[in-house]
Amino acid sequence: MLVLSRQRNETIMIGDDIEITIVDVRGDKVRLGITAPPHIAVHRKEVYEAIRRNKSASQSGNGQPSSVESFANRRSKKEENSSKGKQNNADK
Questions:
Q1: Please, which residues have CB within 8 angstroms of residue 57's CB and are 6 or more apart in sequence?
Q2: Residues 22, 6: contact at Cβ < 8 Å?
């Protein structure tokens, strides 16, 4: 593991395409800004692990949508309903 020290507004480059900037430091919390190409997924580790678990569960054929898929479906439906409401309001 490479360990680096950085201050606010300093950046770390990973390869030519990924840029990590220290946005803020407050107490024991550090806020990072990450710039990466669209084809590279960036997740917190716990989210990444949940996605992997859900993918392996769905590949085992249990037929149940994963919690991540369920969340994504609920969000899509909300966005769809929201855009329909905006469309209806524009028609009035």
A1: 64, 66
A2: yes
In a domain, 44, yes or no: yes
Whole-angstrom Cα distance, residue 12 to residue 14?
A: 7
Residue 55 structural domain = 11-86
The total number of structural domains that make up the chain? 1
Q: Which two tokens stand for residue 48?
A: 């990444």
Mean pLDDT of 60-86: 57
Asked if 46 and 67 touch (Cβ cutoff 8 Å), the reply is no
Q: Which pLDDT tens digit goes with each residue over 30-68?
A: 999 999 999 999 999 999 999 999 988 888 765 555 555
